[in-house]
Amino acid sequence: MKRLSISIALAASILLMMGCLGKKKGEGDGFQLVVIKVIPGSASTTARENGFQDTIKKKYAQQMDIVDSRYGMSDRAKSLAVAENLLTAYPELDGIFAANEPGAVGALEAVKARRLAGKVKIVGFDSSPSLIEGVRDGTIDSLVVQDPFSIGYQAVKTIADKLNGKSPPKRIPTKATLITHDNIDDADIRRLLNPDIKKYLKKGAEGVSREGKKVVAVIPKSQAHIFWQTVHAGAIAAGQDFGVGIRWKAPTTETDYAEQVRIVEDFITQGVDGIVLAPTDKKALVPYIERAAKEGIPLTIFDSGADTEQYVSFVATNNYQGGVMAAERMAEILERK
After folding, report:
1. List of the chain residues with pLDDT < 50
2. How many other CB atoms sit within 10 Å of the CB of residue 225?
3. What are the Cα distances from residue 247, in Å, to 225, 230, 239, 272, 292?
4. What is the torsional sign of CA 7, 12, 14, 20?
């Protein structure tokens, strides 16, 4: 019996070293946190992940510890599986930071399925109807929310300005806002969360006539998420205000770099007047961004950066600061426990 106990203890130690089991929190230990990351190579989401992790390590290392981080691949089903595995591995888990909307949805569903809502705190990034409802009912503590309508609008405006002989700023930051149960019904927050995108998307579906208009191609990372649909609406609104036509085309998923490359190449070949691009990868899209510049097609980058300076403007949230904001909120709510 003694030999069996030793064998079980040894097996448990091996599993812990392999990451198959999470450590159990004992008296005096800090809060356990995990991060559901997005995809490798995405500059915007890597920045917010780094902002969260750096802040926890630099400011709150005595109170809490990030015990694991895994990629959800910007997919709700994959993020759900990741969240379930993390909850299994770390039964004493205190908090989850999900660095984008699919990750937050996956975390929410996993926590609800295990009846851990409220016990395991979730701070997410970006919004959707289910996440907003989660903030209302307390299953999600808070969301760091960008302004995708403004991002789409400002990005197209930079190209319209460039085509009209103006010199747009090289960097245009847009705001991130922390949404909690306490402020979700404030007028400014309601406007941020509920822009009238259907009005603009309906007009966009009618297509673009080239006659008499410059044409700007807008290429997001994907079409599936409400974030990108809101960017689309903002782009159409800017097109109407500044007299340019909008051609919108998106890869099927945020991980399909090759498809986004093909889309960029096609628009360059077609000779559009300008391009607005959210690079899926900060390195893979560089040759095509630089090709557009060589061919005299002004290109603005939005949402996520790229390792080149050959663009008109970069329009994006300060994602690192958004990650810092999420870490500060996580520390605040866990210290109340």
Report:
1. 1-6, 8-28
2. 21
3. 18, 15, 10, 9, 16
4. positive
pLDDT of 204: 64
Q: Is residue 65 a contact partner of residue 30, using CB atoms and an 8 Å limit?
A: yes
Answer for the pair 172, 314: CB distance below 8 angstroms, yes or no: yes
Global pTM? 0.86
Amino acid letter, 297: I
- Work out the end-to-end distance of the chain between its first and last CA atoms, rounded to an integer number of angstroms: 41
Q: Which domains does the chain have, with CATH numbers?
A: 20-146+320-334 (3.40.50.2300), 148-172+195-316 (3.40.50.2300)
Are the CB atoms for 158 and 218 separated by under 8 Å?
no
C-alpha count within 13 angstroms, C-beta hemisphere, residue 156: 30
Please tell me the predicted confidence (pLDDT) of residue 19: 42
CB 72 within 8 A of CB 98: yes
- Which spans in 194-285 are helix H? 197-204, 226-242, 257-270
Single out the residue of 321, 325, 42, 307 nearest to residue 173, CA to CA: 321
Of 218, 164, 176, nearest to 317 by C-alpha is: 176
DSSP 142-207: EEEE--HHHHHHHHHHHHHHHHTT----SEEEE--EEEETTTTTSHHHHHHH---HHHHHHHHTT-
Distance of CA 171 to the CA centre of its chain: 19
Under 8 Å CB-to-CB from 174, ≥6 apart: which residues? 146, 147, 150, 151, 154, 315, 316, 317
Between the CA of residue 191 and those of 86, 133, 158, 173, what are the distances in Å? 35, 16, 24, 19
Secondary structure letter of residue 19 according to DSSP: T
Q: Identify the sign of the CA torsion 216, 146, 119, 138.
A: negative
Euclidean distance between CA atoms 239 and 223, whole angstroms: 19
